[in-house]
Design a protein that fits this description.
The complex is a heterodimer of chains A (601) and B (569). Chain A is an alpha/beta fold. In chain A, 62% of the residues lie in helices and 11% in strands. Chain A has 2 domains: 31-345, Up-down Bundle (ABC transporter transmembrane region fold), CATH 1.20.1560; 366-600, Rossmann fold. Chain A has 20 helices and 12 strands. With 569 residues, chain B is an alpha/beta fold. Chain B contains 19 helices and 10 strands. In chain B, helix 4 (105-147) runs antiparallel to helix 5 (149-156), helix 4 runs antiparallel to helix 9 and helix 8 (207-259) packs antiparallel against helix 9 (265-306). Classes of the chains: A alpha/beta (601), B alpha/beta (569). Chains A and B meet through helix 1, helix 3, helix 4, helix 5 and helix 6 of A and helix 1, helix 2, helix 3, helix 4 and helix 6 of B. Bound molecules: adenosine-5'-triphosphate (2 copies) and magnesium ion (MG). One adenosine-5'-triphosphate sits between chains A (3, 139, 375-376, 381, 401-407, 447) and B (463-469, 494). Magnesium ion (MG) is lined by residues 367-368, 409, 489 of chain B.
Chain lengths: 601, 569
């Protein structure tokens, strides 16, 4: 188990993100590996991409025809007083403009479509990957920061993949053509023009060295903004209860300002870069003028050649300027891409072994064999746990807070992997089973009763989406939730608001119990499932559960000892160890920790 | 556009720089032509060298202006975005619990991030471009009218068509982009819910169902966006095409005029050139109109949040609440979270300063609801609540909440160090006070056992602590405030009985003389109470001390005996 906060620099809490500047890998310009991997997302759309490129070339051809047609109209038709010819030429112009419209529209639509498609599938992939990552990953990553990766980093990549790639290819083709023409016109002037290219490369190199860091920072900072905002929203009730609105807004403003400054910094870099490229273009023009002018003076060149050449120099720098514009987009996309790929590359700590088998129907024997566990390497939470739970038994875990009860229970569902020893269900080591087949036969009521937005019925049905309404109601009855749910204005169709806030804490627990019961689990884990439920209701639930648990294994955690008196076996935990075990009366008789706890109630 | 006001200086400077850039940009080609005509053609190498240097200077000037213009525009627009986000945060902090109950984090995040970004994009570029374009359009139109009014009018005949297309594009885009942004919000909300509930998703092995659900929202976002992309791809170039048609008209009709000798070729060429200039800004409209349309919907969405009035605010004549003694009176309080669904129906009771009040009742009977009304998380529908004779609606929220310490039933900690979490209760508090609060909450021991002690970072919402540890940190946080009125809503539900007992002992010292509201399921907590309120379906069915209630309330006696039987009190 390696639990680490921020092994991945950019994924820490909003405050910590602020401190992780300059995780710079030698300021490499454009990491070709990242670029190639990003481009690979375009692969499924090769044909469309090709079509879009073709359309782009065709539409540029159309765009180039129209000045030529105007020239014909003026030089030939008008000069020749040829009204009929003029009519046809203008007609042709109109046709060309319509054709230009059609090709441009189609090309734009294709490119946007591809971009959106890539975006959508990338988000789907990220989401699926997040599902595969283990609980410990999610424990150490701020929700808002992850959201920012899936929502905004991905859309930055899209800018590059959709229009960027097409423009790059299109411009490169145009550039190649112009270079060829220039070389054929006059080699020495052409070479003089290209002389600024090394300067341009130098500028690009300097720019990208610094841009990499700057743009990476913009992505990190915006993630910090999302993370901070999301956290403050989820803690807004505490913030208001403590009248700390001012402090939290100030803190947010700090993160927000840092984001603004990072953006201004990054953009200032490109505002140096782009005009520099522009200037170098004029420098090339000036060189041509100067050299050409002198050559003309010496009679080595005709004026016409110089004029034509000048026109091409301007044409030559247009695509270069476009490209450098895209180069800045690319920097941003690389920074976003890096973060997206980093997430995709994170290996789940818990995964199905190649040889993993599906768990057959569980009979319910659970065995902890010399189990040791730690969330963080340097802090053992469980030590030497040996425990055998026979099928159908109800085992209670009690003990002081932080003793490791929740931890022990979550090992059965393999939410974490043990560090030492093994957890066996029906004799199978849980690491040798597919997670799905194991967990599908378990029901967990967590200590913190989480409800999803959606209806009450949706929430109960979460554990088995295809359950009928009758089954849902039965589960609710067993959890003693039916009565209060029916009393709600819209009954089972009542919408649960975010965080389950429109249910009382006890009601949330009842719904969670119903959800676990509906899963028809072979092993039921109740982690303080009724801690916020009044004792009368709890009694009723216990009666219902007793019938239900007749042939199922149950692990029950509770502080109210009344809840677990009837358990077949009670394990008292302290400091990550089982210190006492036995039935209620045995433990009372022994006069140890359990008797002590029980006396206090 | 109001938002730009604080940055008018930068914006103006950026605009002036833009004008300068335009001027230089227009001069450079003229200058080159002049060099060719008068330098190269006349083979004057001296002039060539000097003018080439001049050209470079001009270019340098342009680059410098471009740099400043870019930086200034960016600064202004980034500031607008920053201000909007700050405003959203401040507004969120102000909005009442009931608003937050109804809102979804995903939706708010989309507005604060994506929608603000769209507005920023427009304030940065489009706004300048529009002004710039207007100047160009008016200038060129005047020139055109001067050269040939009839031809000019004909050429500009396409303008209304153009305006109509542009407007209709904007009009159609707005509702669509509203739907898309909403859908993006839904997508974000789905993701957010999934991440928050990841333990449940895993425990029930429902990853596939979640993926399918996300895919549905994702696909819907895609098809909506693709629809808009189509609208945009097929309408925006139309604007271009219409602008081009005026060139066709000018060449066709103008050419005809030339053949009729009513116009010279030179005039026609000049006309075509100016027309070309006129169509440049018009063409840009094809890009700007959609951007502005999107920004306007985004603006609507943002101002929806900013313009919401909080349901719980300071009254206009609110005065700060003086230090309270702790008398709390409920007078016939009626309350419902939603319309026509009453939760509390006429609750009245009076608490003397320093009393410990316990609330007891079945799940959902309204215990938390009652205590939620004391710090004005919600306002009662009818009736009043008085603290020391002050109606709490007549005092300022800050002064009221400053004197009340609440441990909410659901523990929320922040993703920072334990120390900062406790200090959240009173940021200026010293180390000693902080340690004392932690000790009273029985949190000191376990915190010291952690590798980094008080500096241990905890996960979001405290996920890396056990349930009881979270609750104890939350109690410490509240105790540090040293409140006049303490509210503990099931604050020790996840704490073992031995620890709970110790917390109670510590509290007895700390809270001596202060009013205390306690909600707890364990009756052992209740015996110490000076007054016990028993709730059933939002009504107060009995009140009194333990001894009184044992005699008078059947429900209480039953509860008591049942717990006694089960646990051995
Ligand atoms: N995700 C986590 N990462 C790191 N440490 C953790 C994590 N979850 C729990 N711990 C630590 O492990 C120890 C045991 O926690 P656990 O939740 O198992 O206790 P518990 O016995 O269930 O306590 P409680 O009765 O308060 O619920 C605690 O010290 C806690 O701080
Ligand atoms: N924010 C809310 N919006 C709408 N309804 C709510 C909201 N909070 C609570 N309710 C409803 O009000 C009723 C009373 O809830 P309350 O939280 O006061 O119960 P409680 O007595 O504290 O219960 P518990 O012991 O389970 O905490 C419940 O029926 C609940 O569904
Ligand atoms: Mg409650």
């Amino acid at each position: 188990m390696s639990f680490s906060f921020g092994s991945t620099g950019s994924a820490m809490g909003p405050r910590s993100v602020m401190q992780s500047f300059g995780r710079d890998s030698a300021g490499q310009a454009i990491d070709p590996r990242i670029l190639m991997r990003l481009l690979a997302f375009l692969k499924p759309h090769k044909a469309r991409m090709f079509a879009a490129l073709l359309l782009m070339l065709i539409s540029s051809a159309f765009a180039l025809t129209s000045p030529y047609l105007i020239k014909i109209a003026i030089d030939e038709n008008i000069a020749g007083n040829d009204t009929v010819g003029l009519f046809y030429t203008t007609l042709l112009m109109a046709v060309v403009f319509v054709a230009l419209y059609v090709t441009t529209s189609l090309q734009q639509y294709l490119l946007s479509w591809i971009g959106l498609r890539v975006l959508t599938s990338l988000r789907a992939r990220l989401f699926a990957h997040l599902q595969a990552l283990s609980v410990s990953y999610h424990n150490s990553h701020i929700v808002g920061v992850t959201i920012s990766r899936v929502i905004s980093d991905v859309s930055v990549i899209n800018d590059l993949l959709s229009s960027g790639v097409a423009t790059i290819i299109g411009d490169t083709v145009v550039l190649a053509g112009i270079v060829a023409v220039m070389l054929s016109l006059d080699i020495s002037l052409a070479l003089a023009t290209f002389a600024v290219l090394p300067l341009m490369l130098l500028a690009t190199w300097i720019f990208s060295r610094r841009a990499r860091v700057a743009f990476r920072q913009t992505r990190q900072r915006v993630a910090a903004v999302v993370g901070g905002l999301a956290e403050d929203i989820s803690g807004i009730r505490v913030i208001q209860a403590f009248a700390r609105e001012g402090v939290s807004s100030d803190r947010f403003e700090e993160v927000n300002r840092a984001n603004r400054d990072a953006n201004i910094d990054a953009m200032s870099l490109s505002f140096i870069f782009l005009p520099t490229v522009d200037f170098l273009g004029v420098l090339a023009t000036a060189t041509v003028l100067w050299l050409g002018g002198i050559a003309v003076a010496r009679g080595e060149l005709t004026l016409g050649t110089v004029v034509a050449f000048l026109a091409y120099v301007t044409r030559f720098f247009q695509p270069i300027q476009d490209l450098s514009q895209i180069y800045t987009t690319m920097q941003s996309a690389m920074a976003g891409g890096e973060r997206v790929l980093e997430l995709l590359d994170t290996k789940p700590l818990i995964y199905d072994e190649a040889a993993a088998v599906d768990m057959p129907r569980i009979t319910g024997k659970v065995e902890f064999r010399q189990v040791g566990f730690a969330y963080q390497l340097d802090r053992k939470i469980l030590r030497d746990i040996n425990l055998i739970i026979e099928p159908g038994q109800t085992v209670a875990l009690v003990g002081p807070t932080g003793a490791g009860k929740t931890t022990l229970a979550s090992l059965v569902a393999r939410l974490y992997d043990v560090a030492e020893g093994a957890v066996l269900v029906d004799g199978y080591d849980v690491r040798m089973l597919t997670q799905r087949s194991l967990r599908r036969q378990m029901g967990l009521v967590p200590q913190d009763p989480f409800l999803f937005t959606g209806t009450v019925a949706d929430n109960i049905r979460f554990s088995s989406p295809r359950a009928t309404m009758a089954a849902v109601e039965n589960a609710a009855r067993a959890a003693n939730a039916h009565a209060f749910i029916s009393a709600l204005p819209e009954g089972y169709a009542t919408k649960i608001l975010e965080g389950g806030v429109n249910m009382s804490q006890g009601q949330r627990q009842l719904i969670c119990i119903a959800r676990a019961i509906l899963a028809d689990p072979r092993i039921l884990i109740l982690d303080e499932a009724t801690a916020s439920v009044d004792t009368l209701t709890e009694m009723l639930i216990q009666d219902a559960l007793q019938k239900l648990l007749a042939d199922r294994t149950a692990i029950v955690i509770a502080h109210r000892l009344a809840t677990i008196r009837k358990a077949d076996l009670i394990c008292v935990m302290a400091n990550g160890q089982i210190v006492e075990r036995g039935s209620h009366s045995e433990l009372i008789a022994r006069g140890g920790l359990y008797a002590d706890l029980s006396l206090r109630q | 556009m109001e938002c730009l006001r604080p940055y008018w200086r930068t914006t103006l400077a950026a605009y002036l720089a833009l004008l300068a850039i335009n001027a230089v940009a227009l001069t450079i080609p003229q200058f080159i032509r002049w060099i060719v005509d008068s330098g190269i053609a006349r083979q004057d190498t001296d002039l060539i060298s000097r003018s080439v240097l001049g050209l470079l200077l001009l270019a340098l000037l342009k680059s410098v202006f471009t740099y400043f213009q870019g930086c200034w525009t960016e600064t202004a627009s980034q500031n607008v975005a920053c201000d909007l986000r700050n405003a959203i945060h401040r507004q969120l902090a102000r909005l009442s619990f009931s608003w937050h109950d109804r809102s979804e984090t995903g939706q708010i995040l989309t507005r604060a991030i994506q929608d603000v970004e769209r507005i920023r994009f427009v304030t940065g570029r489009a706004f300048l471009r529009i002004i710039d374009g207007l100047v160009l359009v008016i200038g060129s139109s005047v020139l055109l009218l001067l050269i040939n009014p009839l031809l000019a009018l004909l050429a500009m005949a396409t303008m209304p068509l153009l305006a109509w297309r542009a407007m209709s594009l904007g009009r159609r885009l707005r509702p669509m982009s509203l739907v898309i942004q909403k859908q993006l919000g839904k997508l974000t909300a789905r993701l957010e819910q999934n991440l928050r509930g990841v333990r449940i998703v895993k425990a029930f092995a429902q990853e596939d169902a979640e993926i399918a659900r996300f895919a549905r929202a994702n696909r819907r976002w895609f098809s909506l966006s693709a629809l808009t992309a189509r609208l945009q791809a097929f309408t925006a170039p139309q604007i271009d095409m219409i602008a081009n048609f005026s060139t066709v008209i000018v060449i066709g009709y103008g050419g005809y005029l030339v053949t009729c000798n009513q116009l010279t070729t030179g005039e026609l060429v000049a006309f075509a050139t100016y027309l070309g200039q006129l169509t440049v800004p018009v063409r840009r409209m094809g890009n700007i109109v959609p951007a502005v349309a999107l920004a306007m919907t985004s603006g609507t969405r943002i101002f929806e949040i900013l313009d919401t009035l909080s349901e719980v605010t300071d009254a206009p004549d609110a005065r700060p609440l003086p230090p309270v003694k702790g008398k709390v009176i409920f007078e016939d309080v009626v309350f419902g979270y939603v319309h026509n669904h009453r939760i509390l129906q006429g609750v009245s009771f009076a608490v003397r300063p320093g009393q410990i009040v316990a609330l007891l009742g079945t799940t959902g009977s309204g215990k938390s609801t009652i205590i939620n009304l004391i710090p004005r998380f919600y306002d009662p529908t009818a009736g009043r609540i008085l603290i020391d004779e002050h109606d709490i609606r007549k005092v300022t929220l800050a002064s009221l909440r400053e004197q009340i310490g609440t441990v909410l039933q659901e523990t929320t900690l922040f993703a920072t160090t334990i120390r900062e979490n406790i200090l959240f209760g009173r940021p200026g508090a010293g180390e000693e006070a902080m340690l004392a609060a932690a000790r009273a909450a029985q949190a000191d021991d376990f915190i010291r056992e952690m590798p980094q002690g008080y500096d241990t970072l905890i996960g979001e919402r405290g996920v890396t602590l056990s349930g009881g540890q979270k609750q104890r940190v939350a109690i410490a946080r509240t105790l540090l405030r040293d409140p006049r009125i303490l509210i503990l809503d099931d604050a020790t539900a996840s704490v073992d009985t031995a620890t709970e007992r110790q917390i109670q002992i510590a509290l007895e010292h700390l809270m001596a003389g202060r009013t205390c509201f306690v909600i707890a399921q364990r009756l052992s907590t209740l015996r110490k109470a000076d007054m016990i309120l028993i709730l059933e379906h939002g009504q107060l069915v009995a009140q009194g001390t333990h001894a009184e209630l044992m005699k008078s309330s059947g429900l209480y006696a039953e509860l008591y005996h049942q717990q006694e039987r089960a646990g051995g009190l």
